[in-house]
């Protein structure tokens, strides 16, 4: 174990990339609604990649050497309906998680922008859809009690392509 930790010293988990069906709609969502900023854009004839992050992590010059970067990927071959875990629980990507200082204000902002909120904190409304997306049994089955207790204080919403967003207050 010590050998691998020495080997990977200085490594960072830099980014997660998601395929989007409408780049401008997704950019609006992640910039205007969730407050991220574009770090860099890479475009060619058939593909556009946009890296986003929060301002505190550094500017464009740090896009590939910082943590918490989200890559939006659009190509002319992207289908109108992107495959995601909410509709296809067997999909590899479970969710994108965001830690926020004020969860109630975050939920309010999402609703102001017409974002689909699947589950609000402190409620069990919507846990069936969340359970399906995460690949868990719903709480009424009586299993996974610890997960459902944790999720009680968490909110879940969807981005413009239906990707599951977990929102956690810190």
From TrEMBL:
One family name in Pfam for this protein: Glyoxalase
Keywords: Metal-binding
Highest taxon of the lineage: Eukaryota
PROSITE patterns reported in the protein's UniProt record: GLYOXALASE_I_1, VOC
Keyword set includes Translocase: no
Record flagged with keyword rRNA-binding: no
Coiled coil (UniProt feature): none
Protein name: VOC domain-containing protein
Signal peptide (UniProt feature, chain positions): none
PANTHER family: LACTOYLGLUTATHIONE LYASE (PTHR10374:SF30), LACTOYLGLUTATHIONE LYASE GLYOXALASE I (PTHR10374)
GO molecular function (one): metal ion binding
Domain VOC, residue spans: 10-170
């Amino acid at each position: 174990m010590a050998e691998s930790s020495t080997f990977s010293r200085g490594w960072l988990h830099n980014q997660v990339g998601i395929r989007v069906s409408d780049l401008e709609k997704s950019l609006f969502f992640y910039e205007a609604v969730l407050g991220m900023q574009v770090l860099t854009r890479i475009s060619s004839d058939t593909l556009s990649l946009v890296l986003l992050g929060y301002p505190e992590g550094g500017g464009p010059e740090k896009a590939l050497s910082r943590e918490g970067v989200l890559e939006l990927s659009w190509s002319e071959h992207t289908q109108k309906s992107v495959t995601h875990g909410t509709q296809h629980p067997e999909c590899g990507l479970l969710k994108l998680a965001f830690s926020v200082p004020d969860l109630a204000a975050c939920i309010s902002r999402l609703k102001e922008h017409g974002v689909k909120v699947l589950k609000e904190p402190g409620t069990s409304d919507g846990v069936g859809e969340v359970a399906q997306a995460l690949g868990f049994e719903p709480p009424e089955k009586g299993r996974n009690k610890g997960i459902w207790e944790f999720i009680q204080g968490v909110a879940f919403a969807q981005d413009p392509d239906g990707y599951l967003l977990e929102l956690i207050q810190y």
